[in-house]
TrEMBL record:
Protein name according to UniProt: Class I SAM-dependent methyltransferase
Record keywords, A-Z: Methyltransferase, Transferase
Molecular function in Gene Ontology: S-adenosylmethionine-dependent methyltransferase activity
Species assigned in the record: Streptomyces guryensis
Cited PANTHER family: TRANS-ACONITATE 2-METHYLTRANSFERASE-RELATED (PTHR43861)
Pfam families: Methyltransf_11
Residue ranges of every copy of the Methyltransferase type domain listed in the record: 34-129
């Protein structure tokens, strides 16, 4: 339960109860949602409680186990252990919404990942992702692998080059007393 008393919620930032809601995605009821880097499944579970159907993909088997234990009884929600590019290359499913919160979009080369994401999206679908605000112009090592930090302008150029439009990038300030902000990117599949 969060500070507002909600049992499910979507959290774009690294801070609890901070940042915008799922409204970034527009209405999700009746839409098929894919989360790349679904972790414990909480963000995707929230969207399913709002009427979406969801597929969560995470590279870590332990994360799938946790997600299934916590959310496995929620109808319309599936979890799978897979690397994002492998999953996208192998599936024939299409999605209305693809999201990645501190997930695959941050850790996989965008010139490899974004064309695969776009190929599995319905026209007019929404891609939204968040990660730490960029600290450099290029990839840099992190505990989970290579991070692909990009500036807002770079994300706009990369996304439009891979079949997305209406790219919107916002920087979410951290809560008081914290130093790191969050970048939130939203784009439409052309």
């Amino acid at each position: 339960m969060n500070a507002k008393g909600d049992t499910t919620w979507l959290n774009w930032t690294q801070y609890a109860d901070h940042g915008p809601s799922e409204s970034v995605l527009g209405p999700v009821a009746g839409r098929r949602v894919l989360e790349l880097g679904s972790g414990s499944g909480s963000n995707l579970a929230h969207l399913v409680t709002l009427g979406a159907t969801g597929q969560g993909v995470d590279i870590a088997p332990a994360r799938e186990t946790v997600a299934r234990q916590r959310w496995g009884d929620l109808p319309g929600l599936e979890f799978r252990t897979a690397e994002a590019t492998a999953f996208l290359s192998e599936t024939d499913e299409t999605f209305d919404v693809v999201l990645s919160i501190f997930g695959a979009v941050w850790f996989v080369d965008p010139d490899t990942l974004l064309p695969l994401i776009r190929s599995r999206m319905t026209p007019g679908g929404i891609l939204a992702f968040s990660h730490l605000a960029p600290g450099s112009e290029g990839p840099k090592p992190a505990k989970a692998g290579l991070r692909h930090d990009r500036t807002p302008g770079e994300w706009e150029r990369i996304l439009t080059g891979h079949g997305f439009s209406d790219v919107r990038v916002s920087l979410i300030d951290p809560p008081e007393g914290r130093a790191e902000g969050t970048m939130l990117v939203r784009a439409l599949a052309v």
